[in-house]
What does this fold into?
Amino acid sequence: MSTSSTTPILSAELPTQVPPTVHDSGADTEPGGIVVHSCTTLGSTLIVRLTGEIDHFSAAPLRALLASAADDGYTGLVLDTRGVTFADSGFLAVLDGWPRHGRRLRLAHRSRAVKRPLHAAAATTQRPAQAGSLTAAATS
It folds into this structure.
């Protein structure tokens, strides 16, 4: 026995298009969290005073500044971080490349926020720090 139905499977009216919903990931992606308060030079050394918060997203201006300084031949870097109120591994990632190629790094006036990731990085190092590594520069 066969039956046929004339009722359509889909309704005659199609739903209106709903615009896509943007979901907030919760991450702070606001640029400008870190501010280069001042930047001076002394011979081949760049002296930078930072203020604000630095994480993976807000580190781009500092990353660009350091890349430019390296390209311009600066071999020393002194970072005054007394005004940094938050720092995480994004800050360490930016600094990690500086000591390569014989460049020197010194962190002056380290704020509590900067000391926290430096101590965490030093604690996770299994072997003694090499002379040019970030951990050695951070603990000196």
